[in-house]
Amino acid sequence: MTGGSAGLHEPVEKLAAATPDLHRALVSLREELEAVDWYRQRADACDDAELREILEHNMREEMEHAMMLLEWLRRHEAHLAGHVRTYIGRSGRITELEEAGKVAK
Predict the structure, then answer these.
(1) What is the domain count for the chain?
(2) Smallest Cα–Cα separation from 32: which of 82, 78, 70?
(3) Rg, Å, the chain Cα set
(4) What domain range is 26 assigned to?
(5) What is the pTM of this model?
(6) Which ranges of the chain does DSSP label H, i.e. alpha helix?
């Protein structure tokens, strides 16, 4: 398997039609979040203020890309959408949101 389907754990012909695109989005989200981490570390370690500013800018761009992917996933995966409604943008202790029975199933 090549391209965006690389890394599938099962033969593509056995997967639901939407699964390869969901996989592509999940892999891309992981890569964007990894890039956020790398840029943050590089900016923290950088002694040059101008280079630090550029690295921080790049980090924020990767955050934007990650959120675009997360929104696409929310729109295409109903269970994820339910968890987003439960946890994202909510106040209070995160673990208590589920315990209170607020997780959308």
Answers:
(1) 1
(2) 70
(3) 18
(4) 17-99
(5) 0.84
(6) 19-45, 49-76, 78-87, 94-99
